[in-house]
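User: We ran a pulldown and think these components assemble together. Before we commit to crystallization trials, I'd like a predicted model of the whole complex to look at. Sequences follow.
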Amino acid sequence: MAAPVTFPSSGAAFFGGVKSALTSVFFLVIMGTYTGIGALAHDFGLSPWWLALSSILVWAAPAQVILISALGAGAALFEVAIAVCLSAIRLFPMVVALLPLLRGPGTRLSDLVLPTHFTAVSVWVESLRLLPAMPHERRIPFCNGISVGLLGTAVTFGFFGFYLAAGLPPLLAGTLLFLTPMSFLISTARNAQMLVDRVALLLGLILGPVLASFDIGLDLMWTGVVGGTVAYALHRLREAAA
Amino acid sequence: MTATELSPYLALILVGFLPNEIWRALGLRLARGLIEDSEIVVWSRAVATAILAGVIAKLILVPGGALVTIPLFVRVAAAVCGFAAFVCIRRSVFAGVLVGEAVLLFGGFLFAG
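Assistant: Here's a predicted model for the assembly, 355 residues in total across the polymer chains.
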């Protein structure tokens, strides 16, 4: 385990969070991902300010990729909303797992609103890794610092990618867009310590494209409900047998 | 109604921000009574992981934007190599992502469609 980390003030904890964000592997991943998303927004005819606002408000790369390609392609709004909503379900258990780490004796509900909004795969993975080593009263500013560092990176490189897009060869633009599925696959696998999570990951990888190819509608929801429930059932059977 | 008929900013709020944020808000609302190891949290994490995996697979197999110009077998090979590198090289996320990206770039260079 890491040695205890102490900060003299909330401000120092916040900047400590920013610093840890800018030196984590997610800094590079987000830099590349949002350069790719910036190029995508350019190709689909959206403005760079729209992209910046979407990064701040949505703050979830898969949802933003879905949103930009669907809006740009002129998809029906209801369909876009459903697709975004289904891709975002993972945020719910992440918030549920993160908040108990942040909450101390004197924490008000309003203190948790910002960390809740900032919850995303990157912030979640880094928070769960670093927060346990520090005292409760510094955890919220530190977590907000991580988030501001990573979100600032996303906004900055969104602009960068947008203006780079015109001169970006398709192969390089494609490589940047590949960062999202590649880094998500690996960081999800790293976080899947329990068998139930590993089975769910495997089933989702198989069921997602299979169900999508049947064109049944709401395929991501069924992927989650079927894949997740089967994984959970196996987990229960194994516990019962043990 | 399609997105092009609505202001892109209004569309961002209605079909981007709100359907995404509702899960965070629900998490904030329900985190109160739940402990991390409770059965409902284990199940919902499994569901979320399966959905995220579905999103990942679709982003690789049926991507949008410039990624379509790279052939399907190159994308799949890159994901497999990246994952193998992650498993082999001390479960390092950085190594896995780097190897996956390198295979994609090299394969795309050789077999660009």
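The CA atoms of residues 70 and 109 of chain B lie 9 Å apart. That may be worth checking against your pulldown data before setting up trials.

User: Thanks, that helps.
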